[in-house]
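Same chain as my last thread, 471 residues:
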Amino acid sequence: MTVQLIGILTLLIGIASLFRPAPFTVNVFFCSTLLGASAALVLDSLGGTNISPSHLLLGFLLFRLLSDERVANNALQGVSFGRPGFWLLLTVIFSIISAFFMPRLFAGQTLTFPVRAESNQSVPLAPAMSNITQSIYFIGNFACFITLYGYASTLSGRKVLGGAAIACATLNLIFGALDLLTYFTNTTELFSFIRNANYALLSDTEVAGFKRIVGSFTEASSFGSATLGYFAFTGRLWLLGIRPQLTAPLAFLSLMAMLFATSTTAYVGLGAFLALSYLQVLLSALRRPITMQMSLFLIVGPIVMALGTVAIALNENASAYAQNLIDTMVLNKLSTASGIERSAWNEQALQNFFDTFGFGVGNGSVRASSFPVGVLASLGIFGALIFSLFFLTFLLSRGRGDRSDALDDGYRQAAKAVCVAWLITATISGALIDLGLAFYTFAALTCAEPRAFSSRNYKQVREMQLARSSG
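reply #2:
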């Protein structure tokens, strides 16, 4: 095992968090999910597997939060039948079973594009180290979700998570600005201590004259996808009229950062998300009064887009540049080497599904280029079904928070918007079934329900009731 400099700093922060209030631990953990290109530890015995700062801090987060009896009790309630945590737990258990048995049961009977490979050639299905690592990541996702579900079952916990999300949106923009600054000043080595993971890093590329912004991630696609999520969060808060002096500039800057990242995934995801958001606000306007910001979005949004399109069309240079950018990043993407490669991943993943008679090849056995395709290929019909129940239960959940508290309700709605945005980008280009710790953090904020009493309070109330009845 190799401990990196960022790993030492993470360990020191993690130890310090044990002696700090819970909000400090939550904020530090949440912000660490931005470090997508970082490796705190490298496990040489597991094929050079990276342990990211967020996964290292997850251990401290679990210890710190679950030591609170109320949080632990609420987390246990979160896995009761029918709740999102129940379906996610079933999915994790099934994925572990599939990761062990399926590569052995169907060994050599189908070809797969492995999760970790030095070449892009398909190989016969066989057990691999990625079956273990992907299972561990999925267990970590569940632990993150259910622990923060317990923490967010209090109003104060939900507000801490919401505030931490705003901090993440701000920090993400700072990383993006620093990425540009170090690139144009030839000081990119200053970022090397947080770009130390043994992944393929594409941090110094340009497209159509733009420096592709990667921020603290491995490539522009990852940065664009993450930024779309934080744009969804801050944009939704602005539409709801929540702290508009802060959320409006954060949403606008996130939008600009996304556009300059020149990521196909982000561009397509942004278009789909804005269309869904416009439809949602329009339906809301038909049912009840809406905020001034929503009215502006409905009226001014299409006008701004139309004027911008006309202005570009009337300017020959701008029109040629925009056409080149659209052709390069969207229209001709599938004909590029990357597009052909990703199409082959999806095609082979679907073939894996049929070759295994719908049982799947096991979590960690296959790499796809679309989250739903990856789920079907990895977990099969049954695994995809119970995983879908998790998404349906938390996305359709309205929660039972304090509806009179605009901030609390706003955080819940904004968190749901993030999950929708990230599911869109994962559907476009997600390679694995692992959606990441940040996704499950927002999912917990979306569906966590308040509990009236902790176990200790319940006992106290029960004793009082018995005393009154005996009296």
